[in-house]
């Protein structure tokens, strides 16, 4: 927990001008990752349930997975797949044997979230860096210190 508290203290010290520039950049980045995840999940489409349940959680929102939930920081955004079978599609399954001797066979992994993040990460990094730079310039222009 020490590292979480230290991170929270560092995030609290960020100038409001930087936060104001970062939140839209984080939201747009999460939407971009979600769009790519939806496109990648298209390959495993059967009912469309998985694609329809890829969601963006805005900064400060609540992420829910099953019975668990977590509050995002005001400088965190998330992309979640809330379909109950999303983890099975992402990671695949091994063969399962039934008591009667039958088998369901294995389902190969058809990842969609991790590849979406990896494809989007360079653009996300650039977008966030631009937002931070713009926030620093705005803070410096408002007497917020040297830039």
Could you walk me through the main structural features you see in this protein, from its secondary elements to its overall organization?
This protein has 147 residues and is mostly helical. It has one domain. It contains five helices and four strands, in the order H-H-H-E-E-E-E-H-H. Strands 1-4 form a two-stranded antiparallel sheet. Strands 2-3 form a two-stranded antiparallel sheet. Strand 2 (62-65) and strand 3 (68-71) form a beta hairpin. Helix 2 (16-41) packs antiparallel against helix 5 (113-141). The chain starts with a helix and ends in a 6-residue tail after the last helix. The mean pLDDT is 87.
Major sheet details:
2 strands, antiparallel
Helical/strand content category: mainly alpha
Work out the helicity level.
Answer: 40-55%
Q: Give the topology string: H per helix, E per strand.
A: HHHEEEEHH
Radius of gyration computed on alpha carbons: 20 Å
Task: Tell me the count of domains.
Answer: 1
- Contiguous low-pLDDT stretches (5 residues minimum) are none
Q: Enumerate how many helices there are, as a single number.
A: 5
**Span of the ends, CA to CA:** 32 Å
The fraction of residues assigned to DSSP E strands is 5-15%
Strand ordering within the main sheet: 1-4
C-alpha geometry: elongated
Overall pLDDT confidence: 87
Strand segment tally: 4
């Amino acid at each position: 927990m020490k590292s979480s508290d230290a991170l929270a203290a560092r995030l609290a010290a960020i100038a409001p001008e930087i936060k104001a520039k970062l939140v839209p950049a984080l939201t747009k980045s999460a939407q971009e990752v979600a769009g790519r995840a939806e496109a990648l999940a298209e390959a495993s489409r059967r009912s469309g349930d998985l694609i329809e349940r890829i969601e963006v959680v805005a900064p400060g929102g609540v992420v829910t997975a099953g019975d668990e939930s977590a509050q995002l920081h005001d400088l965190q955004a998330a992309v979640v797949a809330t379909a109950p079978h999303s983890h099975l599609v992402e990671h695949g399954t091994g063969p399962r044997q039934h008591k009667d001797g039958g088998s369901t066979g294995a389902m190969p992994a058809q990842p969609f979230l991790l590849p979406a993040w990896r494809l989007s990460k360079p653009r996300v990094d650039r977008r966030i860096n631009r937002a931070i730079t713009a926030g620093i310039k705005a803070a410096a222009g408002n007497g917020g210190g040297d830039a």
